Amino acid sequence: MGKGALALTLATVAVAVVLTWSYAQDEAPPLAQPATAPLGRTEGFSLMGAAPSPLRSLGPALSRSVADVEQALFVDGSLREAALDGDWSVDAAGRLQPSLALRRRFDQLLTTLGEVNLDELTAWLRDRTLRDVGPHASAEILAVWDRYIALLERPHASAARWGDPHSWAQALAERQRARRDILGPVWAEAFFRDEEEALRRRLEANTPPNTPASSRDLSEAPSPLLHPDPQFSAEELHRRRIEQFGLEAAERLRAEDEAQAQWQARLDQARQQLQALRQAAHLSEPQRRDAIEAWIASHFDATEQLRVRALLGL
Known about the structure:
Layout: H1 15-18, H2 39-43, H3 66-75, H4 100-110, H5 118-152, H6 165-183, H7 185-205, H8 216-219, H9 234-245, H10 247-278, H11 285-299, H12 302-312
Helix pairs in contact: 3-5, 5-6, 6-7, 9-10, 10-11
């Protein structure tokens, strides 16, 4: 496709893919949470696939001004009316402090790739941090940003496979080495410590993440407690499930409820993006179709794409 097509002008990069498991399996993989609460941060499953993320190849082939990028993202684009996630992690004395909050901000900004390219986003980041925290902290933030991009684009030899805890351990070990080599030990700990510890706990329990509640006792139980019921609070529903099914089954049911809520949030996001692309007057119809396909491909795996297209009537 020629440069003039601008097929990816409004397609957003799925950095969330980098933040979820990549399973070598026939079944659909666990669903990622919305970008505001990535699954990996809370449950420890930030194991990337073997292929690097093509961050530098996505987005329009433009070189717009910082003001134009601000307009494209915060007025016309996906960050309109949105507050920046996390923070710049700069203390009162103007010193940059390693923290997960900075990674959260980076991850949110990276979801805009496709609307802007990486060079434009980096230029905007430099301008914004200069205004917010001054030149010294800005330079430090940009240095961490460059290393984080290098980490996300790094290929890996191993990928986690469903039902194979040994592959999880291999994938985790490889990514831990890469994180510490590229980010340095301090920043790697700040960005990934919580999820790495959560995954190690799963490994010690020898339990696959997001194990589905598919055991015989649940699949054959004719109980309204198998699904969320608006008459019960989450706590009350969980208590009743424990009474009827036991703690392990209740935990699995709660995980399924959360996964379904995550899927619905992703579907709602896709529906909003589809509407925005259909209303983008500057796109021709072929460009609009290409942008829709690119956005869906970047946010859902092959199995999910079939389901999304059916649900959205594509």
